[in-house]
Amino acid sequence: MTTRLSGSELAAGIRAEVAAAAAELAAAGTPPRLAVVVATADESSAWYVRSIARAAEKTGIACSVVDLGETATPDRIRAELAALSRDPAVHGIILQTPLPADAVFEDLAASIDPAKDVDGANPLSLGRLAAGLPAFAPATAAAVLALLDHHGIPLSGAHAVVVGRSNVVGKPAAHLLLQRDATVTICHSRTKELAEVTRSADVLVAAVGRPGLVAAEHVAEDAVVIDVGTNPMPDGGLVGDVDAGSVSGRVAALTPVPGGVGPVTTALLLHQTIQAARS
Ligand SMILES: NC(=O)C1=CN([C@@H]2O[C@H](COP(=O)(O)OP(=O)(O)OC[C@H]3O[C@@H](n4cnc5c(N)ncnc54)[C@H](OP(=O)(O)O)[C@@H]3O)[C@@H](O)[C@H]2O)C=CC1
Ligand SMILES: Nc1nc(=O)c2c([nH]1)NC[C@@H]1CN(c3ccc(C(=O)N[C@@H](CCC(=O)O)C(=O)O)cc3)C=[N+]21
């Protein structure tokens, strides 16, 4: 029997908490505001921005989308992030990907005030996270931990294997798991014998962006599997990195896609915006 580790109820609970806090902040004269900086015409990015804006407004967080266009220069993007960092009416800032070809995400994100860096994009935030100092974690990495905690999965001493080493998901998720006393292995595209490594995981986090990468031969029978992948299919559907068909029935627990990490990510982004507005 494989338990379905749903994220939808957890996300709804976080959004309810966010709505109550946003109302309190507004009544106290600090209406919370999130700014989203966009420099792409990418369709899936536009979908994600709309879904953030919708969720923000539903919970009482104002959301300004600053679209600089796909021809924006790195200097222009940097200047905008710096201006928003100085704006006292803005509490949270996110820089959307993809970026124009000559822009480096981490380099530009260094211009986001760490106190407003609600998606943990500034390399300073990642460094602070790694050092065990207070910092905003990327919302997706935080969502992985929130799901594990919500479903009561023990982490201390557990072998956690993270597949993927991006600054947005894999690396920060590994640091958060390490902070919780898991024994952490990070895998990537050059990892040898991937299936052998992942089979030794008590907790397996897949954050790659390849449908079906994790199949039955990659998992132990009692593993807890968190599927971060959100891969759009030609038919308009969305699938994760885990081949749910071959894995479910075998592992102890698995997050669904959709309805797993995704909704928790968006809810935590709003929650981190509330934290930023409070400080
Ligand atoms: N639900 C949510 O909220 C979010 C979902 N996502 C989804 O998560 C997935 C990962 O995103 P992101 O981290 O940004 O992606 P990146 O493309 O930045 O990173 C992918 C990682 O996977 C590794 N990788 C690629 N191929 C393999 C392979 N065959 N075996 C092992 N490792 C491999 C890469 O290794 P190497 O470093 O060696 O190249 C890299 O570290 C995507 O599907 C994305 O859509 C992302 C953010 C939020
Ligand atoms: N710096 C950075 N931070 C991110 O957080 C980030 C990013 N870059 N790049 C793009 C990806 C993508 N992403 C998603 C978040 C929520 C859902 C989500 O809520 N999806 C719904 C389903 C939507 C549907 O059905 O189409 C779900 O999983 O249930 C999806 C995708 C965040 N990303």
Kindly describe this structure.
Helix 1 (8-27) packs parallel to helix 10 (261-278) and helix 6 crosses helix 10. The protein is an alpha/beta fold. It has helices at residues 8-27, 43-58, 74-86, 105-109, 123-131, 139-150, 170-179, 194-199, 244-247, 261-278; strands spanning 3-4, 33-38, 62-67, 92-95, 159-163, 183-187, 203-206, 224-227, 231-232, 238-239, 253-254. The radius of gyration is 19 Å and the shape is globular. The longest helix is centred in the first third of the chain and has 20 residues, at 8-27. The protein has a six-stranded parallel sheet. Helix content is 41%, strand content 15%. It has two domains: 29-115, Rossmann fold; 139-261, 3-Layer(aba) Sandwich (Rossmann fold). The model has no long low-confidence stretch (mean pLDDT 97). The structure holds NADPH dihydro-nicotinamide-adenine-dinucleotide phosphate and 5,10-Methenyltetrahydrofolate. 5,10-Methenyltetrahydrofolate is lined by residues 48, 97, 119, 121, 139-140, 168, 230, 238, 257-259, 262-263, 265-266. Keywords: Amino-acid biosynthesis, Histidine biosynthesis, Hydrolase, Methionine biosynthesis, Multifunctional enzyme, NADP, One-carbon metabolism, Oxidoreductase, Purine biosynthesis.
